[in-house]
Design brief:
Number of helices: 9
Order of helices and strands: HHHHHHHHH
Radius of gyration: 17 Å
Strand content: under 5%
Structural class: mainly alpha
Shape: globular
Helix content: 55-70%
Length: 156
């Protein structure tokens, strides 16, 4: 799920919206799970638009008026009798991701440190899950992201 949120933030692919809408329909309270929420928040920070875009709900605006190509690309991968309703999917995903729009103190600090100091501190999100934190501390994606943010900040 976290990967789908990241994809939604990075690209305009109707399949990402569709998949998240289906996930939201099958488990509307998934964001109540603290680990899932932490992983989604972390995925947001890995997305290309971060730190300029930190709210995944903002990404839904790209689907407000879907182009013919966007609709056709989805129709080609869903069941023939499944008629995609983009406004309904956007509403469902917006409600589903809304909790990620209201950050906790630790989540705000995680984003702030990454944005302003190029300092990735996954322990702010994942300290309750030592095994997940251990993997997060060595993940090269976030090391690369922090390095690029640092270069941006210094103009290098």
């Amino acid at each position: 799920m976290a990967g789908k949120v990241k994809a939604l933030m990075e690209r305009t692919a109707s399949r990402d919206l569709y998949d998240l809408a289906r996930m939201a329909a099958s488990n509307p309270n998934a964001m109540d799970d603290p680990l899932l929420r932490a992983l989604v928040i972390r995925a947001i920070s890995t997305a290309d638009p971060f730190p300029a875009v930190q709210d995944p709900v903002e990404a839904l605006s790209r689907f407000a008026e879907p182009t013919v190509e966007l609709v056709q690309s989805l129709r080609s991968v869903v069941a023939a009798d499944d008629e995609p309703d983009f406004p309904a999917m956007c509403d469902r995903v917006a409600a589903f991701l809304a909790p990620c729009s209201e950050l906790t103190g630790h989540e705000r600090e995680y984003f702030r440190l990454l944005d302003e100091e190029s300092d990735c501190r996954p322990e702010l999100l994942l300290s309750a899950w030592p095994d997940v934190l251990e993997r997060a501390l060595i993940e090269p994606v976030m090391q690369w992201k922090a390095s690029n943010l640092k270069k941006r900040a210094t103009g290098a």
